[in-house]
Design brief:
This protein is α/β, with parallel strands linked by helices. It has one domain: Zn peptidases (Aminopeptidase, 3-Layer(aba) Sandwich), CATH 3.40.630.10. The chain has helices at about 1-20, 25-40, 55-60, 65-75, 125-140, 165-175, 230-240, 255-260, 275-280, 295-310, and strands at about 85, 95-100, 105-110, 150-155, 180-185, 195, 205-210, 210-215, 220-225, 245, 250, 265-270. The strands form 2 sheets. An 8-stranded mixed beta sheet has the order 1-2-4-3-5-12-6-10, sandwiched between helices. A hairpin with a 6-residue loop joins strand 1 and strand 2 (about 95-100). Helix 5 (about 125-140) crosses helix 10 and helix 6 packs parallel to helix 8 (about 255-260). The longest helix has 20 residues, at about 1-20. It starts with a helix and ends with a helix.
């Protein structure tokens, strides 16, 4: 009996130590479990084929060359002429659309490339979703008076080490293009929106006793380094614009936001808050249009409009 009590005490103590070490990530972990428990394959509101995000259906079957051509033509046909900026050592380019007056811009970003061009891979969430939300928001804002300088940026080569984002930062420095803040939309589709801190290794970060800081991305468990939280000024602006938006602490992301933050541009990566859903579809053939819920895309669209109108 004494041995049993000692064993139980050891287990409870170990769990207590683990929880104490990981209290910062407890909210993110509970949110993930809640997403897992309530996930349903069919979305409550599928994306309307003739609605605001109809371009989604045209884009998902295209390879990257076709997606780039479609993006430029879609904007041009609606009277919006983006500036194509080359990416060194790549056939892909970045597309910059400026709206409003001159001055440091509030910039909205989505990468337009997809990780695979095999016929079975759509890349609906990653990142056709962000691409079409920016198209819809840019068209709306271009038709109304603006109170501040804005820019929309569609980056290429995000899936190849964010080469497009690196190229854009270099171009901005060379030309004196001033950026006030950057909101990067990547992997939309389910639930609310979440602003995620960036790290060199994405996933759920936690401290493992005797091992230190680890990250689990749904497939592998690896050591990782500490990461910075989302900028507090950015958090305040996001919460003022959309009170239900989640702010993750230990669910990290990797993408263009890493590059922009490293350049000294405050901002955040915004994605679907249902992290269980994102784990299911990330970089595999499950990333299909029929799993997207239009309400999540609407949240991103309206967030852009609100941020564009705020001081």
């Amino acid at each position: 009996m004494r041995g049993l009590r000692w064993t139980i005490g050891t287990v409870v103590g170990a769990l207590g130590v683990t929880l104490a070490l990981n209290w910062r990530g407890l909210g993110d972990g509970l949110a993930y479990l809640d997403d897992l428990a309530h996930y349903r394959p069919a979305p409550a509101v599928p994306v309307a084929p003739r609605g605001r995000y109809a371009a989604l259906y045209d884009l998902v079957p295209l390879d990257n060359a076709g997606r780039e051509e479609y993006l430029e033509q879609w904007l041009g046909q609606r009277g919006l002429t983006p500036q194509r900026l080359p990416i060194p050592n790549s056939r892909q380019g970045n597309f910059l659309l400026r709206l409003g007056s001159d001055g440091p811009v509030t910039m909205f970003v989505a990468h337009w490339d997809k990780v695979s061009e095999r016929p079975t891979y759509q890349g609906a969430s990653d990142n056709t979703s962000g691409l079409v939300v920016l198209l819809a928001a840019a068209l709306t804002l271009a038709r109304q008076p603006l109170t501040r300088p804005l820019a929309f940026l569609w980056t290429g080569e995000e899936e190849r080490g964010s080469l497009g984002a690196h190229a854009f930062v270099a171009w901005a420095r060379e030309t004196g293009f001033a950026v006030r803040e950057v909101y990067n939309f990547d992997m939309l589709g389910r639930g609310a929106l979440v602003a995620r801190p960036v790290s060199a290794r994405p996933g759920f970060v936690f401290t493992l006793p005797l091992r230190g800081l680890m990250v689990y991305d749904g497939r592998t468990l690896r050591p990782t380094a500490p990461h910075a939280p989302v900028d507090e000024a950015v958090v305040r602006r996001l919460r003022a614009a959309q009170p239900d938006l989640r702010i993750a602490r230990m669910m990290t992301a990797l993408g263009d936001t890493n590059v922009f933050n490293a350049a000294g541009w405050p901002g955040a990566m915004l994605s679907a808050a249902n992290l269980h859903y994102l784990n299911l579809i990330w970089h595999n053939d499950a990333d299909r249009v029929d799993l997207l819920d239009e309400r999540n895309l609407d949240l991103a669209y309206h967030l852009i409009l609100t941020l564009a109108a705020s001081d």
